[in-house]
Design goal:
alpha/beta; two-stranded antiparallel ribbon; 156 residues; 5 strands
Amino acid sequence: KVSLAFTKGDPEAAAAQAVARFLSAAGLHVDLKGYSFPPYLKLLQQGKQQLFRLGWIAEYPSPDVFLDPLFTSGSPDNHSAFSSPEVDRLLEQAHAAGSPGKRQHLYVEAERTILKSLPVIPIGSFVSRWAARPNVEDIHFDVMGGFDATNVFLAK
């Protein structure tokens, strides 16, 4: 028997119900517990949850936006209480890496180490849709769906 905590409302409740169905199919009895947001954060900060659903939105396109706050030992946003000197070391090295390639390699190693130790399951991500007239040129989107408007122009 496990308890799955989530924030009340949709799409969070629908996602929690879907996870509960999958866990039930695997033979677990799942007790869903929905909370309004402030009590939910307090529950996570106190570490009183078994399983939980948490959304996280990146401010900029970098693995560090997820890995550092969610998995660094002692981070206030590390609600899983995950702690690994190896991951801490890899993330610290990634922060100091002089090249994007080296930094990316360190983030991949940190993520592999985390996934070997902790049952974290990404459920989904947001999709951005943009529309532009045919005369809009030099618009390039990053992995998060954002773009730098300073290089965009309208062709004649």
